[in-house]
Amino acid sequence: MMLVRQTLSLLLLLVCTLPVPGRAEVHSITATGEYRMGDHDSLADAKRLAFSNAKALAVSEAGTYLENVPAVKQLGFNAEELRAYITGLLEIIEYPHETARADSATVVSVPVKTVIDHAAVIHKIEALVQNEHAKVELTRARDKIDGYRKEVEADTRRLAASKDTSEVQAIAQHRREVLSLIDTEEQLARTWSVLVGAEEAIHSEATPSKETSKHKKTQPKPAPAGAPDNAEEHRKKGALLNEQGNYDAAIPEFRLALRLMPDLDRAHLGLGAALQGKGDLDEAIAEYRTVLSVHPDDPDAHNDLATALQRKGDLEGAIAEYRTALGYRPDDVLSHFNLGTALSARGQEKEAIAEYRTVIGRNPDFIQAYFNLGSLLKAQDQPADAAEALRSYLKLAPTTLGTKPWIEKAQNMLLEIDQGKSKAGSP
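RE: above sequence
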């Protein structure tokens, strides 16, 4: 067994490189990535880092191995070039992680395996490199991944040395985001492989077809410039992750969609929403403005931009954007509701009340509008109308953990209104 040590606690262990018995043209690579946990590492982060290390070692070992295969040598590629071209071809199987104690530290290890079919990989690499766009993108992805791995190592060193709690959290979060960027680049490489018909070049149980066994050369079809169908699938996946509140996972999906199709407006909006969900308001605003620079009449982009500006404290800017959105889509109850919240925060309570009434008039099932309306009416000393709105809220609101605080507030406000009536009616 050969131990490969990385900076600080990042360790990579190559377990074995074995030919598959009985098949001269198939080669198996098994590698294990290790990560030595520090005081500020979580098990989830350690597993992710160990898996990332294992994938890097497997890809590197595959490139070195293929460089020495006679048929590949004839193509004239070195190990670094091969590493770029095979990143999207490798199907890497992850096995369950293990933990062990070493020198008073916990070491997390994740084994992986991939299988290379010589005839298939040569055929598919040829197809990839004949597509100039794919060749450039794959090389760029390799370089990006290398740069991101250096960032991860630097973050790990900073994390080990840090004593400040807030700094530790920031560094750990940044490292997770960089790992997500690595995932994005790897996914992009796989996408290019699919686009040129290379998704089965190397896989775990490689079985060459008749054509690949004969090493039959074919002229590949050029990859489509935008690949809109594939981009849309990544956008949809990102949107689903946004709905689940999993913004860290959603961001790479949207970014990959935009790499494949830069003018996919819904992906810009989805990325903006994910960034906003994480609190990266400036970046979110930039995404919304990107859409508006091309489509200034997009009401969704105006509404989303307004929500980010509102969270940033720019109420005047937010109100202007909400009103612009409503100018293009006057019946949009969400923009009316959001405008009401911004007006209320700015102290324009009468205007906010009008917006909430508009929401309820157009959508009587918009539950939160009743609460906000009742709260403002109570503050405006309109107890009868406030009580009516709050009772409507209590009638419609489902009893969940999320609504429980709001229900209790509504009940307390109603109690205060009733107590006020009692005091007013007493002699």
